[in-house]
């Protein structure tokens, strides 16, 4: 096959990492994975055999917390020590810039991993809590000068703060001069009737012929449910041949909740804990799922891994928690992304 | 719960089922369907047999699936530039996709007639061909139109959470 024809058939690179463990296992890293994925725009959970939202989950959703929109905020405001001392206990400012901006800024960075032979994008990382970034240090003065005078950069920011009960300024009062707006995450609830669900066995991640479905098949099925794709098609159907993976069972009802906004990892951990507590009492459900979508245009995905937002931008993960608290964790990224941890 | 003497299947109170709980379904459901625990008369329903999900996983295990999706998914929208009058039901829409789709096996997973938007599924090896063909369509029934590709991903789940469509009031 000639080279141009071969390129037509090339599949964009993507990766799905599946982890299997137990929620109470000492080496389980479920909380670490959630905490390291900072920028989340959508969380949804599905509970088969459930028609009413449990009270414990309802209260977590109610207390999920506000996020804030600040328009036309100068980037140098985030490197002042007043801001760092008030809101940043430990953290880095990571800026992804094109070549021209990088050269105008004059700050030290590294080429993007995904920029090809001709580097057109750079990543600048500034450790805000490093001792070398103390007030009046050379580094701090350089960064402040670059962002304030050399190449002033202004953006609309979405902000969210995990306030562990600390007193003092809040984001609303700190940015009151910038016309900060508070937003509540939007929650939608629905009960799905007569839903075909794949049969899963927690210790069979790859599935077993005629006994259980694989993690990949579950991941695709969940996508169909969340996008309201009909799954009762036949192989000869004209519109679609997409159907539920087999083996499957039909559940009378399933509860689907979706929360959209800027959601903190700590809140997701609370949701995950409450989904585990759902199985404290005997339940009809064999498993429940929790899906989290990252922002498509975030410069990082997990931890400080560079996230290629120039293409699809997908970076999402999904928990399947079984009755016995075994879990599957599926982490998916598209092209121009590092392998999830 | 009581076992049906004919099938041996386990049956639970239907009220317990709607709450997702089998806690009080441990009591007997009378032949007339009345539950002794909650005194409801919603009848008895089959209970799923207990799965083999009892023994906890001994230690974490990891599996990596590289480029394993056999299909790619596209969220698209059909845009008319010249007035109204074009009505496309699901079958017509599929026919249109087939006519531009370079003879690829495409599934129309969802279709909304009001907004003329759809989610398509195509074999991964045909993604570039289909995307190019959709992009090159310029007219339909002698009227200028175009396909807009809103989102594409190898994961159908990714199409349900697009931050680029996040609207703040």
UniProtKB/TrEMBL annotation, chain B:
Q: Name one Pfam family in it.
A: RNase_P_Rpp14
Q: Does the keyword tRNA processing belong to this entry?
A: yes
Record keywords, A-Z:
tRNA processing
Q: Name one GO biological process term.
A: tRNA 5'-leader removal
GO-annotated cellular components: multimeric ribonuclease P complex; nucleolus
Name the SUPFAM superfamilies on file. Rnp2-like
Q: Which family does it belong to?
A: Belongs to the eukaryotic/archaeal RNase P protein component 2 family.
Please identify the protein, giving its name as recorded: Ribonuclease P/MRP subunit p14
């Amino acid at each position: 096959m000639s080279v141009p024809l071969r390129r037509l058939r090339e599949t964009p690179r993507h990766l799905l990492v599946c982890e299997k463990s137990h929620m109470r296992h000492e080496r389980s890293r479920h909380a670490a994975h959630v905490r390291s994925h900072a920028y989340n725009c959508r969380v949804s959970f599905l509970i088969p055999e459930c028609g009413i939202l449990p009270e414990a989950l309802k209260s977590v959703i109610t207390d999920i917390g506000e996020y804030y929109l600040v328009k036309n905020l100068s980037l140098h405001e985030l490197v002042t020590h007043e801001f760092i001392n008030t809101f940043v206990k430990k953290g880095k400012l990571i800026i992804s810039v094109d070549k021209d901006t990088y050269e105008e800024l004059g700050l030290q960075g590294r080429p993007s991993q995904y920029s090809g032979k001709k580097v057109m994008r750079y990543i600048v990382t500034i450790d805000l809590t490093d001792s070398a970034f103390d007030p009046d240090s050379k580094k701090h003065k350089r960064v402040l000068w670059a962002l304030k005078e050399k190449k002033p950069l202004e953006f609309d920011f979405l902000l969210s703060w995990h306030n562990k009960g600390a007193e003092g300024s809040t984001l609303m009062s700190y940015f009151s001069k910038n016309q900060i707006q508070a937003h509540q995450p939007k929650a939608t609830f629905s009960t799905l009737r007569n839903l075909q669900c794949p049969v899963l066995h927690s210790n069979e991640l790859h599935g077993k012929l005629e006994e259980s479905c694989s993690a990949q098949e579950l991941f695709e099925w969940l996508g169909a449910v969340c996008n309201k794709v009909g799954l009762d098609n036949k192989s000869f159907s004209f519109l679609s041949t997409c159907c539920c993976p087999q083996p499957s069972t039909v559940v009378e009802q399933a509860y689907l909740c979706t929360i959209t906004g800027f959601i903190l990892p700590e809140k997701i951990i609370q949701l995950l804990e409450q989904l585990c507590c759902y199985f404290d009492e005997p339940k009809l459900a064999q498993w429940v799922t929790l899906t989290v979508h990252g922002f498509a245009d975030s410069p990082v995905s997990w931890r400080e891994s560079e996230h290629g937002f120039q293409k699809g931008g997908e970076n999402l993960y999904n928990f399947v928690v079984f009755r016995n608290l075994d879990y599957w964790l599926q982490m998916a990224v598209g092209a121009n992304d590092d392998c999830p941890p | 719960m009581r076992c049906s003497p004919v099938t041996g299947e386990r049956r639970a109170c239907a009220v317990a089922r709607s709450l997702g709980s089998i806690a009080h379904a441990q009591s007997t459901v009378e032949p007339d369907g009345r539950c002794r625990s909650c005194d409801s008369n919603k009848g008895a329903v089959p209970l799923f047999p207990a799965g083999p999900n009892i023994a906890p996983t001994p230690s974490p295990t990891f599996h990596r699936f590289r480029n394993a999706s056999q299909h790619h998914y596209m969220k698209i929208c059909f845009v008319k530039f010249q007035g109204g009058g074009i009505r496309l039901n699901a079958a017509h829409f599929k026919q249109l996709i087939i006519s531009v789709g370079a003879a690829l096996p495409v599934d129309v997973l969802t279709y909304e007639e009001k907004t003329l938007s759809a989610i398509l599924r195509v074999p991964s090896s045909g993604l570039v061909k289909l995307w190019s063909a959709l992009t090159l369509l310029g007219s339909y029934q002698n009227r200028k139109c175009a396909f807009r590709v809103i989102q594409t991903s190898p994961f159908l789940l990714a199409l349900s959470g697009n931050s680029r469509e996040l609207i703040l009031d």
